[in-house]
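Subject: mismatched residue count in predicted assembly?

I count 943 residues in my input, but I want to confirm that the predicted structure covers every chain. Input:
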Amino acid sequence: MSLDKNLLSKLAVGDKHGEDSPYFDGWKAYDNNPFHPEHNPQGVIQMGLAENQLCSDLIKDWIKANPHASICTAEGIDGFSDIAVFQDYHGLKQFRQAIAAFMERARGGRVRFEEERVVMSGGATGANETLMFCLADRGDAFLVPTPYYAAFDRDLSWRTGVRIIPVECNSSNNFQVTKQALESAYLNAQETGIKIKGLILANPSNPLGTSLGRETLQTLMDFINDKQIHLVCDEIYAATVFAEPGFISVAEMIQEMDHVNRDLIHIVYSLSKDMGLPGFRVGVVYSYNDAVVTCARRMSSFGLVSSQTQSFLAAMLSDQSFVDNFLKEVSKRVAKRHLIFTEGLKEMGVSCLRSNAGLFVLMDLRQMLRDQTFESEMALWRIIIDKVKINISPGSSFHCSEPGWFRVCFANMDEDTLQTALQRMKSFVLRHRENKKKRKSFQENLKLSFSSKMYDEHVRSPRLLSPHSPLVRT
Amino acid sequence: MGILSRKATCNTHGQDSSYFLGWEEYEKNPYDEVKNPDGIIQMGLAENQLSFDLTESWLAKNPEAANFEREGQSIFRELALFQDYHGLPSFKNAMADFMSENRGNRVSFDPKKLVLTAGATSANETLMFCLADPGEAFLLPTPYYPGFDRDLKWRTGVEIVPIQCTSANGFRITKSALEEAYKQAQKLNLKVKGVLITNPSNPLGTTTTRTELNRLLDFVSRKNIHLISDEIYSGTVFTSPGFISVMEVLKEKKFENTDVSKRVHIVYSLSKDLGLPGFRVGVIYSNDDIVVAAATKMSSFGLISSQTQYLLSALLSDKNFTKNYLKENQIRLKNRHDKLVSGLEAVGIECLKSNAGLFCWVDMRHLLRSNTFEAEIELWKNIIYDVKLNISPGSSCHCNEPGWFRVCFANMNEETLKVALNRLKMFVDGPSSTTRSQSEHQRLKTLRKMKVSNWVFRLSFQDREPEER
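Triage response: the counts match. Full output below for your records.
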């Protein structure tokens, strides 16, 4: 029982947190029936979670070899009280230095990051929200190229009141954002009296798994500079880039493009994806605008990184040889997983958007849709969850403008589980193809015989009855 | 068009206030027994540094918690990936139990109604986001923690209207003060959504009485508004009359499961009781399912590091540790408190009688040149620059009477406290104003001429006259 909703805020009673969306059904299906190789081999395999579980062994080994890094071990306890009281929102200096150094190495040492500009936040989630609070007022808007990370709706808008204006991209050019698309979205917004304060995008992209090329980056920077609006680059997948064109950070572009107003450029970073440490809540706001650094730093009081975690990471990330080896391994292991998965899909005739980064691929299942609509996409998605027992994310949850694309994660499980998932996909795809052929010939023979027993598996499932089903007609 | 948001360019964050300026002065010239014995002693920081040895010895005996291990197995990967905003169940259970223990087990807390946040700072802001829309208001008794101006108002757009409390009755919350504040809000066209109290109080160091709690519950019941009780100092109560949580009074009045009980919310943290502000451990406790659900989702913006949750779940689950810690901590706090109070008494300075907290509310009204806030700031500046102590002037806590200062006693060792008391003695007893040198006179004149810090004008809903007149 809850009391009169008028007593609570609009935020509390509304649904702009986005968690009532049907996409969470996939998660629920997984939670109710999670796959386990021994205990529940028929369970739902989680492929909707962009986690990096590929390199935790490297970190574990480092921890064992470096007990001083923990303030709770005999070797490190002398630092306990100083760390336990440390709540300065500037963060531990060694931590900031280590993060700046890590960010530099993740960009091949091609850029320099100043530790004074490293500002903490409650994960990238906190970083993105904080930047919105700093850069935009309630009612202002940010442009976001589609498809984009589903939770941006919550992180950028929910408590800030900032609007998201999607910039539509499509598969005709592999979803690359174009100058025309940007100009068009900007103009439309202006005409309806919406104030655009900036452009935000993830590079590498979630869900595309692609990193931006130099030309596209130049286009983006020229665009925002021309309009004198902000550019926020969420670079949290930086170290997962494993192939050409390599990772080009906006930090590199700034060096090349002198004419661009630096006060407009801001980077979001985190250790959740590159290092696989989402539980430690390490987010970073890195801004080239001094006023934003100051403001974001004050706001970081609402989501500081635990000093215990800062202290631990300061030690680990200062170990250059560890960092260099780690970054090399991340890239290598992600590449391997990516290859296994995409090759496996290719064998069954399923293609993916060509990608060079990220912990997922964007799978092209347009051929499997009943028709090119989002209803069909949802229908297919429900089959994959309920029958194939894999939780994947439909493109519509990422605001993709074309139905039929699905994001599938491959780095949050062991290789055997990945193979199991591929097997299930293979059976499903082959069955689907067969049924499609049969349905086609069945439909062609429909006038001749009602007694054909070759029902489409889909047709048999009551949830998916549609006006086009032969069953209904009979 | 402004390139940044209004939030970025205004100063509702309150960091231009004298509360923070004192910190800045300290940062420039910090006291160190050996390296800088003439430096400024920090007495403006409400930290509990008295009982680390207890925690450290627990850690020494419990290496598993430190090493990401449970029953000999590494759980590193599990922790590294754990970002569920519902929190580590073992940690929430341990927190709920610890909170009960702090209240003598007179009330119990349901872990399902607990929301974990990155410190009380985040907990308070989150509650504002859940309970009030921009432009609505919460009533707060004065004096109050200066950080509330930022935590409750800055990004939320919520307003604070003060409930004026005075030394006439020991700064207790009266019925008329509550009604007056409510009327004031209405005059300002602000919809009041609730009352927020800190119990034990910062900066007063006193626990809220049963009478006050009853009064508050009656008030919020009549007005159909919320009551937030920030109880982050609950473990620092070191002498009678003891700590009474609003949850206990609800139980006594048999209000559990009523509408009123759903409007009572508690904020807690381990920053003061356990002295772990760096770990960012905050908690919201609410009987309202919607508030719990909304606050849980919002906690995504400031979750507690899983590494820290795990360590603390082990620490707090050890009942021997918690029992001993709470008892020993209280003894040490009382000891320190008594030393400060008697040291001040010896130089004719009284404190508000207090039984909790990490500070005393010190009465220096008799040292003011005049009964004005300008004189208070002048005295404060003297104390920073001449006596070399950073203490917090009452005006930074929105006290409506000049001359009160908050002085912290638990964030230094005993030697440093002695040094501080000596300095104060010299300041009070030392050369009287008639024998001050010319240069000192000149300096005082210059100080007076200095523009009063801008914060005086930027405090919201000032119903006081700015001093420059």
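Chain A touches chain B through 77 residues (CB under 8 Å). Marking this ticket as 'not a bug'.
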